[in-house]
Structures are given as C-alpha cells and as structure tokens.
Amino acid sequence: MDPQLQTLIELQGYDARIAALDTEAARLPKQIESIQTSLAEAKKQMETLKARVDATRKDLRAKEKDLEVIAAKRAKLEARLYEVKTNKEYSAALLEIEESKQEKAKTEEEILALMELQERLGVEVREAEKRYKTREEQARQDESVVRKKLGAVEQELAVVRGDRNGRAKDLPSGLLSDYERLLRARNGVAVAAVGATAICGGCRVTIRPQAIQELKSPVTTMMRCESCGRYLYWQE
Ligand SMILES: [Zn+2]
C-alpha cells in the first residue's frame, strides 16, 4: 500500500479516537454538574423542612404568650366580679369570663396541634438529615469517580494528540491540509474503506468496477470517492 495512504488511515484512526475522547471530555463535567445540582436540590428540600420546624416553634411560642395574656385577663375579670355594683355589670363580667374560657380552650387546642406538628416535623427532619447524609456521601463518591474518568480522558487525549501529530509530520503539508479539511467537512471521516460490497464506507455510494481494480492493485495510487471526496482504501 502507498505509504502516504497508510499514514492517512492511521491518522483517521487517531482522529476518530480524539473525537470520541473530546466528546467524553465535554460530557463528564456536565455529569459532575448534574450530581452537584441534584444534591443542592436535596439540601434545599431539607432546609425547607427545617424552616417549617422553626416557624412552628415560633407559632407555638406566640400561642403560649397568648395563653398568658388570656390568663391575666381572666384574673382581672374575676377580680372585677367583686367590684361591680349592678346585676347588669355582673352579668356582663360573667359573660366576658365565659368568653375568656372559650378563648383559653381554643388556644390550648391550637397549642396541642402545634406540639403534635412539631413532633412530627422533628421526626421528618431527622429522617431527611439521615437521607441527605447518605446522599451526600454517594454524590461525593460519584463525583470522585467521574473526576477520575475525566482525568484519564484528558491524559489519553494528550497522548493520542501527541502520537497523531507525530504521525502527521510524515505527510506532505498539502495532503495533510486536504485531509484535515475533509475531516471537518465530512463529519470526522476523511478516509473510508471499500470492501467486497464495493461501496464507499463514507457515503455508501457504489464504486465503479474499474476503480475497485485500481484500489485492489498493490501499486495503488491515492484515490478519492467521486461522490464524497473521501480518500479510499481497499479492505477485504
Ligand atoms: Zn464516498
């Protein structure tokens, strides 16, 4: 085989590998980002729950204050019972005491409900914290695996690029720039194999029998597909 064609085939192999590695090198950081985003969302959910616990605690404290106010008011009302002069005033004071009792009962009920809510939320927060811790650890491990992969990909890229550029020096600059132009224009494939089916491995067009004979010849010269322009070589 023509040594330049042989070099082109090898370059194509390197460039295909580089393209695959480039894709990985672009994908892996996105994967890291998505691990971090999903962990941040889990944290936000946990913090929302904690905020509800805080709000409930504040509500509870306010209701307990209300209860104190109600008790003070009640004491005042009861003291007034001894000071009123008329039956009318007495009845009015009794009515207010009755209202105050109802208010107290209602507030106590609300306090009970808040205490139950606080207890339930407390359990939920502890569970959420446990879940988050597990998730955080998993995310840390996942991220470390992806980072290692990314490191390996970048290392391999450097090696393959080095080898590729070393090999590219064996080609005359005109041929190399033609090849690179084709590579860009033809979706990363500038050199295509032709086999027994006699079609271009790049664009699937049928290659003329005469061209097949030339491709098969041991003294083959550089040949390009008449349809897509890719460099062709014969492969059984
Ligand atoms: Zn073609």
Topology:
Elements: H1 3-80, H2 87-168, H3 173-185, E1 191-194, H4 209-216, E2 223-224, E3 231-234
Parallel strand pairs: 1-3
Antiparallel strand pairs: 2-3
The protein binds zinc ion (ZN).
Zinc ion binds at residues 200, 202-203, 205, 225, 227-228, 230.
Radius of gyration: 41 Å
Say what the CATH topology of the largest domain is: Helix Hairpins
- Count of helices? 4
Largest β sheet strand count, sense and barrel closure: 3 strands, mixed
Give the tally of β-strands: 3
Quaternary structure type: single chain
Note poorly predicted spans: none
Q: What are the main properties of this structure?
A:
3-stranded mixed beta sheet, 4% strand, binds zinc ion, mainly alpha, Helix Hairpins, 236 residues, 4 helices, 77% helix
Describe the 3D structure.
By secondary structure, this protein is mainly alpha-helical. The protein folds into two domains: 3-170, Helix Hairpins (Orthogonal Bundle); 172-236, no CATH class. Helix content is 77%, strand content 4%. The chain contains four helices and three strands. It has helices at 3-80, 87-168, 173-185, 209-216, and strands spanning 191-194, 223-224, 231-234. It has a three-stranded mixed sheet. A hairpin with a 6-residue loop joins β2 (223-224) and β3. The longest helix has 82 residues, at 87-168. The chain starts with a helix and ends with a strand. Residues 200, 202-203, 205, 225, 227-228, 230 line the site of zinc ion.
In short:
By secondary structure, the chain is mainly alpha-helical. Helices cover 77% and strands 4% of the residues.
